[in-house]
Specification:
The structure is a homodimer. Chain A is α+β, with helices and mostly antiparallel strands. Helix content of chain A is about 35%, strand content about 25%. The first copy, chain A, has a four-stranded antiparallel beta sheet. In chain A, strands 2-7-4-5 form a four-stranded antiparallel beta sheet. In chain A, strand 4 and strand 5 form a beta hairpin. In chain A, helix 2 packs across helix 3 and helix 5 packs across helix 6. The longest helix of chain A is centred in the middle third of the chain and has 24 residues. At the A-B interface, helix 3 of A face helix 3 of B. The structure holds a DNA duplex (30 and 30 nucleotides).
DNA sequence: CGCTGAATTGACGGACATCAAGATGTGTGG
DNA sequence: CCACACATCTTGATGTCCGTCAATTCAGCG
């Protein structure tokens, strides 16, 4: 839902960039592609927000920690998605690569400077923030639902973003999903098997999911 | 937390406007004060977002409904706060007056038109959205905590916004609080009395709350 | 007053967390 | 290619927090 957040800040084209394919945009010159290993930090909470980022390949999660060690995953970013814009001067969350990832990094000041005289760009930046806001709004709705509904919603959200086929590959672990949905890893796992048993999905591997009854999932998504 | 969101879009002064006092700003001319009765709708979900709003007196809640009737209150807006900016072209949530309220209403197109040539204004609009985003981020963190922590956080949030004294007046009902925190009215009520019994707060009336042990509340706020 | 909606309090049950064990998968080094 | 180690995922047993249902108290108001 509320899927791709990539107006032409990095890429002029309107579709998400496919992995390993650098967007042919004016911003490509402002940004440098960087590699991040699995679990490597892209930026940390409370650090100055000096860059904008776009996922080229792999996947990224943003999260915040509660003092007692609980973790709330705020968002997953897939190829084409832009992130790191959420903040004022300082990052409100940390970002980590979920898997080996390639990320385009553009200096914020440079982007902003260009936005000064390019009306379009400024508007797009704003739009980006608004989209992000919508996403988070949507997410807070998720957190008042029950486990079944949360997981169903999650699967449909991911399906709406990744490939359009009948199966999706989840880049993130069960723990990531749990922390995103505000559940425990066990509850997520149990809900998956429950979905399998009721014929809603099938698991090719634990990370690869076949949709068998999308209508029923939509019904749960309430 | 993350309290007042009122850069000089409506008022040039940096402090929230006190109730019934119209901000002496250039924008006051772009906006007209309107009265809303208790529970009156300011705008509805999916309606075109044609105006920006600033609370002058009273209080406003924004919310979204789930199909099964559950309601998620997304935010409370107090005097000085600006709302209605969250959306693209369409409102993502509904807004209602919590009590008899006075709201300054400014045509969005007019504000945007001015923003075109007033750099400051444009920046402030963006800042406003970012602040809103921070608020919502914060809110989604709340929803993974337990009841005690949620209520404590709520009280501290309200304390940080309203008067600076040792007591606060809550304009909203227990039901509003419950829907904001993702709890039931009964759990909110029980948590309040629990706080009273442990000497953290005192209830002058059910809506008026005295702080007795802010340190303990902060500890719960985790 | 009595009426009405809001808030509180109690009894109970259920959904999900917690604790614990096992199964499956994956990478590494011999 | 196998074997071992370690992480991830699944499954089971039990506990607990909070939701549900229901009754009572309280506050405002005609």
């Amino acid at each position: 839902m509320l899927a791709a957040t990539n107006p032409a800040i990095f890429a002029r084209q309107s579709m998400p960039v496919r992995s390993s394919e650098v967007p042919d945009s004016p911003l490509a010159m402002m940004g440098a592609p960087m590699r991040f290993a699995r679990n490597a930090e892209v930026y940390g909470e409370d650090e100055p927000a000096e860059y904008y980022y776009q996922v080229l390949s792999g996947a990224v999660r943003t999260y915040r920690m509660l003092d007692d060690g609980r973790r709330q995953v705020l968002a997953f970013y897939l190829p084409g998605d832009i992130f790191g814009v959420e903040a004022g001067d300082v990052h409100l969350s940390s970002a980590e690569a979920i898997s080996e990832s390639q990320v385009l990094v553009a200096k914020r000041s440079a982007v902003m400077a260009r936005a000064e005289h390019e009306r379009d760009l400024a508007k797009q930046l704003w739009t980006l923030t608004v989209r992000e806001l919508q996403r988070v709004h949507q997410h807070s709705l998720v957190l008042i639902k029950n486990a079944e509904e949360r997981v169903a919603g999650f699967l449909l959200e991911m399906a709406g973003r990744g490939a359009s086929g009948t199966a999706i590959e989840l880049p993130m672990s069960r723990q990531d999903i749990a922390d995103y949905l505000g559940l425990t890893i066990e509850t997520v796992s149990r809900t998956f098997t429950q979905f399998v048993q009721s014929g809603l999905i099938a698991l090719e591997t634990s990370r690869r999911i076949q949709f068998r009854n999308r209508a029923a999932l939509n019904r749960l998504n309430a």
